[in-house]
Structures are given as structure tokens and as C-alpha cells.
Amino acid sequence: MSFRLASISFLLGSLATGVTWLTVQPPLVRLLDAIQRHTPEGSPAREVVAQVRALLPYYLGLDLLLMAGLCFAVLHLAIARPLRRTEEAVEQLSRLELDLPLRPAGGPLLSRLERSLKRMADALLAEQALTRRQLAELREANLKLRRAQTELVASERLVTVGRLAAGVAHEVGNPLSGILGYLSVIRARAGQSPEVVELLGRVDGEVQRIDQIVRGLLELGRPARGSPGPVEVARIAEACARLLSAGPDFGAVEIKMELEPGAVAQAEQGPLSQVLINLLLNAAQAMGGKGAIRLAARRQGERIAIEVEDTGPGIPPEVMPRLFEPFFTTKAGGKGNGLGLAVSRHLLSAMGGELTADNGERGARFTVTLPAV
Ligand code: ADP
User: Residue 20: which domain range?
Assistant: First the structure.
């Protein structure tokens, strides 16, 4: 850039000097000749004129140098420097760094170009903010879509499982009742052998477990039972908490109630109690029987929201998408069958309600919403 600038300056300097020389030199030479002619031979003035004539080519060279230097300085300040800054601004734009300095640095020649660059950067900045916002909205929508898809898959699976279960459960239910009956007869006749009593206890436990699974499956297949009516949520919630607080999982669990007295939901008492018991039991088990559960109910516009929030470890991200899948459980040792949340959601949706899960301040938070009365 500097070399090119120097060449152009030299060219312009030569041109200017050439033009000056061509216009000024003939009258000047003529003037000097006239002075020389009218000055007596051997006088000092004649000597000076002769010297000036001899020096004229050197003045020309000096003129050329001065003109080239001047052109270089002007071109550098007026064009090269602003151009370099503009180039830097364009490069900054190409790196999508859009916060260009407010004051144009290009001087009068390039200030219009810089102003339009600044306008372009501002427009790009606005466009970038819009794109970011749209991207965030898109991500949110995507997340919702994926959640809805998971729920759809889970509910489809529920319907299939429910249909299957309805058929199988009747067939399995009768022999199961029989087995339980025979077991109690055998226990009565087993006498005092502790080994047999213990084995019978284990068989009984396993059969009870099968019975529970079959009941759970039956719930999944059952269509809406009665017609929902006005239910005072605080009363049901208190009853469920009272029922569970004496149980083995609630030894060191404190249930903090935040129940709005006027919260009346359009629901069925039995299924709603079953859902709350499920959620409270899950919370107590997640905390290992030690901690606090917040049980809150309040009216939110046209809905009643019931929250069960614990101080346990929360729901891990890998568990979250599978939470409501039938038979999904992380509880080891046959403690869970993975039907609790699936059945709860099924029961609630039959009443026009919803069940959602997220992580609260410390542990997991399950939210039931029902139509308000
Ligand atoms: P189950 O209790 O038989 O495992 P659920 O459907 O009730 O079946 O629960 C499914 C899974 O959801 C549990 O195994 C557990 O991993 C997770 N879960 C449920 N409630 C909580 C909770 N309060 N905190 C953390 N994880 C939970």
C-alpha cells in the first residue's frame, strides 16, 4: 500500500512539477537573459544571474521532491488511513463483531461510507438479536414438542398396555385370589415351624406384589369411572398426609402443608387420593425416609394446582423423559413397579387434569392441575 502510494505521489509530483516547469520556465529564462543582456560585462549582478540559471535544474529537482512528499502526506491522511480503518471495520463485520465505534474515523472523504457501514452493522445487530430470540423460541417449541411426543408415546403405550391388561387381569386375578386363599389355609396348618412360616410369608409377599401389579394394570385400562364433582382439595390432601404419616417410609419425614382453604376442584375423590398418595410415597422414598415434603394447593385462574415438592435428590435429566412411561422404575430390589406415575397421569387425564414434573429448589416437584369449580 505504502509503495503504491509513494509511486502515485511521485507521479503526481512529476506531473505538477512538469506543468509548472513548462509554464514558468520560458518566461523565467527569458527574464534572466534580458537581465544578463542589460547588465555590463564582469558586474556581480551578471554573475548572480548566471548562477541562478545554472541552479534552475536543481530547483526543479527540489520542487519535484517537495511536491511528491506533499502528495504522499495528503494521500496518506485523506485516503490511505481512512481506507485502512474502513477495511478493519469491514473485517470486524465479517467476523460478526457488530459493535463498530460510533464516531466515523474516515474523515470527510470516507465518512459517508463509514456511516452506511455503521447503519449496516446496526441493522445486522438488530437482525442478530431477532434471530437469537427466534432461535430461543424455536428451542423452547422443540422442547415442548419433544415432551408432547414422549407423552404421546407413553399414552399410546398406556392404551395398549391397558387393553392387554384388562383381558389378562381378569384371568390372572381369579387364580391369584385362589393362591392367597390357599396360602392362608396352609399358614394355619403349618404349625409352628419358623422356617415354613418364613417361606410362606415370602410367598405371600410376592403374590401380593403380583396382585398390586395386576391392579395397577387394571387401572391403566379402566375408562373414566364416575362423573367428577366438587372436591375440597385441602381436605383430601390432609387426609392422605394423615394416612401416610404413620407408615414406614415417613419415619423422619415432615409434611409442610400450604393448602388454600377455598381451593375446590372438579374431580373424583378416590382417584385424586390415589394420585396424592402415589406422589407422597414417591417423595418419601426418594428422600430415603428423611427430609421434608411441601404439599401445596392453590387456585390459579380456572385451575387448581397441587404441588408435591420434596428435598430429595431430584429427578436426573436422563430419567425425566421416561418418568411417565409404564414400567419405568429406578427403584431396586422390587420396591417399585414403574406404574405409579403412569397410572396417576391416566387417572388425572380422565378427570380433565394434568400431571407434570420438574425439579424445584432442592428436590423433585410434581404438579397436579385440575379444573377449578
Ligand atoms: P415406582 O415408584 O414404582 O418406581 P413411579 O411411576 O411412581 O414408579 O416412578 C417412576 C420413577 O420416577 C421412580 O422409579 C423414580 O426414579 C422417579 N421418581 C418418582 N418420584 C420421584 C421423586 N419424588 N424424586 C425423584 N425421582 C422420582
Answer: 2-97
